[in-house]
Design a protein that fits this description.
It is a single chain. With 304 residues, the chain is α/β, with parallel strands linked by helices. Helices cover 42% and strands 14% of the residues. The strands form two sheets. The protein has a five-stranded mixed β-sheet with strand order 6-5-4-7-8, with helices on both faces. The chain has a three-stranded antiparallel β-sheet with strand order 1-2-3, with no helix packed on it. The protein is elongated, with a radius of gyration of 22 Å. The protein starts with 6 loop residues before the first helix and ends with a helix. About 7% of the residues have low confidence. The structure holds zinc ion. Zinc ion (ZN) binds next to loops.
């Protein structure tokens, strides 16, 4: 698998549309060639290699037909650079920056940005093992920002002006992050049971809403209220390092994430966080496949 250590490597490799098409063909036909119209496996290739014809339904197609790449008329090379920028930049990239970098209108860049982010959505399987659970609060008015900096303890956490996001980090595994409706005990417990297998060990701070977790899982607490942050193995520092990354991106790149789209931004940061130790070439291939196959978010629905 090709490695891309720098943007120079990347652009040097995907130097024209033909190379991009060839690369995408390897991804799309990784389990064998097929017709996107009827699924038949026998296809003919026209000379030049850009067009195909199905041996059964006789319809013509290109490697982009039936994917977002075929629908959008944006060159594959621009899609690839956009995917690279969004997966390689720790803080993400705004559609304004993206438009400047790849030379599209802002509307086109916004569409691409959202499609790529949509493809980063988190899997649904349950985490298992030692899990750090922690929440953070996003948005709200500037004068309420100090809430996030208050010492965590038994004091209620404000979700009237801010949106709460719950993080569940499996040690030596993946992070799951979910926008939650509130941080009431029952809400928190519902999300834990959905996302974490029974039998897992849970670490949290001493926020009140975590106080009944012991009914479901073995549960250890660090008492932030008493200025205790680590006790041996017991801490939620790794989950907190993810929040720090997320908030830097939030402030530095996106400035504002509407509540409606917040889960997608959370997904984007979680994807990068979970991919941080994986080879860049594998991550890029995975993203190209996801973007191509993820067809649920239509341009029209998004711009309405
Ligand atoms: Zn066919």
């Amino acid at each position: 698998m090709k490695q891309f250590k720098t943007l120079i490597d990347f652009v040097g490799y995907f130097k024209n549309e033909a190379v991009c098409l060839k690369y995408f063909e390897q991804i799309r036909f990784r389990d064998g060639e097929y017709c996107p119209h009827c699924g038949h496996s026998g296809i003919y290739r026209f000379s030049g290699g850009k067009r195909f014809r199905c041996a059964k339904c006789r319809k013509d197609f290109t490697i982009k037909t039936g994917t977002i790449f075929g629908e959008s008329k944006i060159p594959l090379q621009k899609w690839f650079v956009a995917i690279y920028l969004l997966t390689a930049n720790k803080k993400g990239i705004s559609s304004i920056q993206l438009a400047e970098q790849i030379g599209t209108t802002q509307k086109t860049a916004w569409f691409m940005d959202h499609r790529i982010r949509k493809a980063m959505s988190q899997s649904k399987g349950q985490l298992f093992g030692t899990i750090e659970v922690d929440e953070t609060y996003v948005g709200g008015k500037e004068r309420n920002k100090h809430y996030a900096k208050r010492v965590k303890g038994t004091q209620g956490r404000n979700v009237r002006t801010k949106t709460a996001v719950m993080g569940m980090l499996q040690r030596d595994g993946n992070l799951r992050a979910k926008v939650v409706e509130d941080v009431k005990m029952r809400t928190i417990e519902k999300h834990l049971v959905e996302n974490i297998k029974l039998g897992s060990q849970i670490y949290t701070d001493d926020f009140l809403s975590y106080s009944r977790i012991g009914n479901f899982y073995p549960h250890q607490v660090v008492k932030h209220g008493k200025r205790e942050y680590v006790r041996g193995e017991i801490h939620s520092n790794s989950a907190e390092s993810f929040w720090a990354l997320f908030k830097r991106g939030y402030q530095g790149t996106y400035h504002h994430m509407s509540r409606k789209h917040l889960q997608r931004y959370v997904d984007e940061f979680a994807y990068r966080f979970n991919a941080r130790k994986t080879d860049s070439g594998l991550v890029f291939g995975d993203m190209v496949r996801r973007v191509a196959e993820n067809d649920t978010l239509k341009y029209k629905a998004l711009t309405k």
